Amino acid sequence: MSARRIVGGARPRRDAVDKVLGRTRFAADVRVPGLLHLAVARSDTAHARVRAVHTARALAVPGVVRVFTARHVPGVNRYGIIASTADQPMLAGDRVRFVGEAVALVAAETPEAAAEGARRVAVDYAPLPAITDPAEALEAGAAAIHDRGNLCFEQRIVRGDVDAGFARAAAVVERTYRTAVIEHAYLEPEAAVAWMEDGVLVVETSTQNPHYDRSDLGRLLGVAEERIRVVQRATGGGFGGKLDLSVQPYVALATWLTGRPSRLVYSREESFLATGKRHPFVMRYRSAADGSGRLLAVEADLLADTGAYASYALAVAMRAAVHAAGPYRVPAVRIRCRTVYTNRVFSGAMRGFGTPQAAFGHESQMDLLAGALGIDPLEIRRCNALGPGDVTVTGQTLGDSVGLVACLDRVGAVRDRWARRLREPDGVPRGLGVGAMYYGIGNTGVSNPSTARVALDPDGAFTLFTGAADIGQGSDNALLAICAETLGVDPDRIRLVRGDTARTANAGATSASRQTYISGGAVLRAAGRLRQRLVQEAAQALGVPAARLALEDGRIGPADGSGTSVSLAEVAARCGGGPVSETGGFDPDAAVLDRATGQGRPYGTYAFAAQVARVSVDPATAEVRVDGLAAAHDVGRAIHRPSVLGQISGGAAMGLGMALMETFGPGRDENLDTYLVPTTLDVPRVTPMIVEQAEPTGPFGAKGVGEPALIPTAPAILNALAAACGARIHNLPATLERVQKALRGEEA
Amino acid sequence: MPVDAAPVVELSFTLNGEPVTVSVEPHRSLLWVLRERFDLTGTKEGCGVGECGACTVLLDGRAVNACLVLAPKAAGREVLTVEGLGGPDALHPLQRAFVDGHAVQCGYCTPGMLLSAAALLQDNPRPTRDEIRAALAGNLCRCTGYTQIVDAVYAASRARGWAP
Known about the structure:
Number of strands of chain B: 5
CATH topology of the largest domain in chain A: Aldehyde Oxidoreductase, domain 4
Structural class of chain B: alpha+beta
CATH superfamily of the largest domain in chain B: Beta-grasp domain
Largest sheet of chain B: 5 strands, mixed
Strand content of chain A: 15-25%
Helix content of chain A: 25-40%
Number of strands of chain A: 28
Helix content of chain B: 25-40%
Oligomer: heterodimer
CATH superfamily of the largest domain in chain A: Aldehyde oxidase/xanthine dehydrogenase, molybdopterin binding domain
Number of helices of chain B: 6
């Protein structure tokens, strides 16, 4: 059973060799002769009526070929990844709603001419009041940013008798927390190239969801999806920021209307200015526990700034609300999360969809309750931790794959070891803190299926067709491993066709930590069906009952090794010589939440995690060092252990940035010189620990890890900081000024 | 004056071991020349202002941000890009270690990381992990959290039978 070593193994990733050789062509590296270079003219005002867009001076620039405005958009000039809230124009029509909104598109023979043309587009604005605060946006009489008002979406979760819980509490903690606007800062800026091929518009791009891209490009251009082919190029990170369309509509429009190839690559400045951000939250929490630390009730009111357009605001509101009380048994909750329009660059999906923000709230509350009751922070989490068969705040009864207590035990052991080294006679404040989380895998309360196809080719090798975008996290590798394990072949015998709308079926977005669980489930089923069909074919050829046959190492023969076997090429020939293929699909068992109470079954399964951070603070400068981070994650089953470790370490680094340094200021931060992300000198060696509580509905027991990796980190660091300073910081990031206050014993 | 009408200068240097000559406008960056004139797209642009390190190349053995080096500054010097570091049949020990050590996720920072690490190992063949972290501090990675990258550089520096 040699192939059984694939799942859970540690082979090098297939894409790694080309990447270390510099041979991988990202979208900006694709060379197309005769292409048009594009530049976008953008709004310099936050909120205004557009009286007129003057393009004559742009057209006069030598080399400028065309200038497009909203009136050139042939289809519906409105897109958005969640169809029910789609509200974003690709080129502003009669209104601009944030600084950086696209107003005109210039196509030219050189990048320099395109940029000069964009500078010369003149817009006649009639200013409107700009709103930058979500609470202000909800006030009566506030200027309406969209016709339907400024409340974009609201999700409530109501369960149990909250007032009774507070009435009999031994401890009640009430605090308000704030988080910052965060930029994804993937290393690869957005890029796309387009051309026409036999009447079909081909768009090659950096994306997390090629099939979504195609459907919205079709609506924008007013053409059938069949006339558009989107191919996902190697993608240099996404983290949610490449779920929305960015550059794709512009190359699509220019090429569709001129017939010429075109390319658009955002500068880092443009990527900061014009693409989605993590929602900043203001969160009021009130939590009650009895004398032994058991949670009695949680009340949470979360207000999130979604900026000028909806993007993923609906999903963020739903997911933040569902997870707002944390991974605990809470008998009574009253939770509300509202996402609100303002005149800032839009907020959308970013690794965790609001859950990292909420986790900062609920995990700070847990430490405060522990402090009020004199209970160890790990103990209060243990005694409330969700376990198999427990009921969540949406009324969902959990299955068996609930590894939270195991995660807490693992980080507890590390914490106790670290605690011995905490007090040194150097006057440096040091502290330890823990954070925990749960995270629903897949989209919230909706069907979100994936489909895959596996073919046996005439040469006896296989091809896996998947629409799942690998954005660097390694879904290709995980899906190949699942396929190889199922077919009993070496993964090197499987070709991969990925992320091409002309050749692969829709796998849904690479988001919500869903591809291993959901697309993995689809691959498992497709490969399983194909295996069954091939074994039956071999059974006829060999005159042996199928039940006695096994597919191993490219041959089908008796499982006990006796008698003759046939090669896969021979089986393929028996099947008619052409490729033999089977498809498979998987859709997690999720159901819509009740509109009023939020009760229901939002996800098929959940990941669980706990992390512990060790920090020290320079008493003179208030500079914070994270000296250690240990992270225990229940991933169900690790399909490829090094990739899981990489996700945990990378997520923790991103969480460290959220905790200590990242905050995007419009007009202040345009590049990585002022917007700081963690470097090798900021991130400690992360100690990852994999917990495997197999999920029966997952492929080989797998769930997901991409977003969970980040979620407990900022809470753990902030709890450690509170322990070190003796005062708590309630606003992210924990800047020098805030840490200085905390060192003086003031709340910050 | 429109930039495309700028005067050009002729520029000769050694690129990945081969002598090359190219005519460019003097305001062009070395990054632009590598990517647009030589189609060496392994060198990436991540920020354009010398902050992310994705465009790191070696100039006379020193790691530089190619986006900040004006092309004429390369005249008469040796430029090494990721394409010159190793080949498919002969991966550089750092490339081997990145593959085997799972130090590659999206791959966009990888070429720059490799060249910063190569410069380090030339000067300091057996660095500590702290020295590796210091040498890579100018190369941002948003995927890995650096753990596997630092380990890979460490592993390469300790690989048997290899001297930089």
